């Protein structure tokens, strides 16, 4: 890990006062980066604020010879966070969106406030900071962005409709940014981490928490955000406790039906529609679906042409 240095690179990390973000900040501070430690120190539910958490991380980085400044702005004001980094360091190379809160409730008991604050913090907050950083990275022809999703966003979790919706939205946001930024050397990826934090300590036993120390997540961040990374873009990476993997969408072989489609035909082929044991595909964009549509239309045209004319 020490082979990848970030000397004089400027790294902005949101939610860097505790948990995963803190480990990220300490890592980048130890390998030569100038780190903006963003954290307003709010409680897990988004209430109250406390500057001490960001200050303590900055103090630790400086005590080890690193360079860091604290930032207490909300991620809902991403322009202020990025402006602070530019004012302090004059450029921006790496952005890691990690900040988040929880308001877990089943849908029947969830209030509009519970929904809005979680979705706004995670999804809009990620957008807000990315938007502020985008023009800077675009103009300098370099940028590395890692946005944080969750297994809840990929697979759904009981009692987390707000959190899961926001985290799923971050995946779509990031995959789109990866396409928009690639030609400007702005590479964007999604990290789906599980590490010991105040979010996980309420649901996992101490021995498990020890095994998922967030410092073990920093190597994959180093690989994705280093300037030597020229190709890893638009990926979704799950990682925890020393395990690393890439997640991708999978489409079943499916079936192409005659038009107009009849309900009975869908019912008749339902097993094949849901069957992943055949020739599966791994789509990466809308064009993959449109190709299937075009193939089916061509098939129907050929069928029509072969029918005898009366």
Automatic annotation (TrEMBL):
Keyword Oxidoreductase: yes
Protein name: Ketoreductase domain-containing protein
Gene Ontology CC annotation, any one: peroxisome
Domain Ketoreductase positions: 9-202
Molecular function, one GO term: (3S)-3-hydroxyacyl-CoA dehydrogenase (NAD+) activity
InterPro entries according to UniProt: KR_dom (IPR057326), NAD(P)-bd_dom_sf (IPR036291), Peroxisomal_Beta-Oxidation (IPR051687), Sc_DH/Rdtase_CS (IPR020904), SDR_fam (IPR002347)
SMART domains: PKS_KR
GO biological process, one term: fatty acid beta-oxidation
The keyword Transport appears for this protein: no
Record keywords, A-Z: Oxidoreductase
Family: Belongs to the short-chain dehydrogenases/reductases (SDR) family.
